[in-house]
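Case study 2.
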Amino acid sequence: MKQKQYNIKLTTLTPVCIGTGITLSPYSDYVIDESEKRIYYVNQELIKKKLEEKLELIDEFVNSVASGMDNNRSNFKLEQFLAKRLGIDIRKHHLLQLPCEARGSKQLYTIIKNAGMQPYIPGSSIKGAVKTALLYDWLVNDNEGQDTVSGLLQNQDDKNPTNKIEQKFNRFNPGFSDSSLIGINRMECIDTRRFHIKKGKPDIPQTWESVTINASVNISLLVKEKEDYVYLEWPELQKAINQYAKAGNKCEWDILVDAAGKQMNNGIYNALYDFYEKMDTDISNAGTSTAYLKLGSGKGYYLNSVGLALFEADTTEDKSKFLEFLKWCGFGKVYKKETRRMEEYDLNSYDFPITRVLDIHKILPLGWVKLEIEK
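Prediction:
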């Protein structure tokens, strides 16, 4: 049985947010000091202890928190309640404090961490991203894969992604470990915005915990021969990963350039253009020991699905076949509160998806990492 293990250094190139699905509330869980650009996580055990000493404040606290969660215009200020009613100075008594560029009272989206509040990169996230790259390689380079793409674009009755594509996807099984732990000093909270292509400006703010740029961790890759699974060593994986990363980055770059004629903030446009250009150069010049991936929140459609292969395979000038595929998948509709129904909007292949997630202060997309084999 063939088996080989690789030790890999992973370095974050942009903020990385691999979410838990859990959010924290500004009315019960954290306090942001915008002037200091710090966030303080509330020590819930300390609050519980203080409330046990002042039972008359329990109802006031519970009702105030509930009011804040139900109405984001609530006047309840957690920091003031802690200081004035419970005698807790959040700057001295907190669970955790981090750098924070976020502003306002929004839900805080949390990332995967261990019990000691240290983040790490789950092996499952790396594995999923690599499997998607391998699937893309099969779709664009293998005759069977190319026939599958052609069928998806031409035959409206054969667009079920659970057939041949899913079977092929499941045959890839690269064995990535969880990363080593990342120091808390490599965590921060960021303001993300969905950059609206047609409007040319950021929209829909979210606050996220993230791993900072230039954080490095160690992971391992175990390549093991196993029945019914595709056996691929690092050289084959590296080639497929970079092929996918380059194609996905180019697609985003092309769409950005196409959007240049719209009313776009020049600072955002120029920063993103420079980033995509540098990524293209770095991926093109990568040696055989280096690969680039995008992980976690904000990957976008073209680095999270087979859509990139379909987009490229459609040779029509207006990508009409790809557009039909998108509509078949349910895209191109939005829920209207006024009519209480789903209504179609003007879906354009070159504007799809309509938004891109950015760290709005650094003007960077999320999730890019570099993998380097350690000898």
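Residues 20-111 form one domain.
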